[in-house]
Amino acid sequence: MATQAATRVEDKLYLNRYLVDAGRAHIKVRPHTTPSPQLLSLLKLCPARCYEMNSAGQVEIATDGCVECGTCRVVAEPTGDIEWNYPRGGYGVLFKFG
């Protein structure tokens, strides 16, 4: 019986395509000096790993690979740490198989 190689999430995300709406990010991290616990949790919770810590110790987002799952919206929008909107029609993630 042959063993099957484990599939990584990153390999599956690579199948998606994105139409970037240049200059109109659908998620914005509000300015902060010290990140809240909610923002820090997004560094690990985001399945597409869109959130990163910059050299100044602040959390930033690159929405180009966002799968629009809503995790950050549930965790950080109620606290006011992020501003989340749906992308304009035709922009955002384009799922290859559905």
The major sheet is characterized as: 2 strands, antiparallel
Helical content, roughly?
10-25%
Structural class: alpha+beta
SSE run: HEEHEEHEE
Determine the strand fraction and express it as a percent band.
Answer: 15-25%
Strand order, largest beta sheet: 1-6
Tell me the number of strands: 6
Radius of gyration: 15 Å
Structure annotation, total helices: 3
Which blocks of ≥5 consecutive residues have pLDDT under 50?
A: none
Mean pLDDT: 86
Distance between the termini: 31 Å
Shape annotation = globular
How would you describe what is shown here?
With 98 residues, this protein is an alpha+beta fold. The chain has three helices and six strands. The chain has helices at residues 9-13, 37-45, 71-76; strands at residues 17-19, 27-29, 51-53, 59-61, 82-84, 92-94. The strands form three sheets. The chain has a two-stranded antiparallel sheet. It has a two-stranded antiparallel sheet with strand order 2-5. β3 and β4 form a beta hairpin. The radius of gyration is 15 Å and the shape is globular. The mean pLDDT is 86.
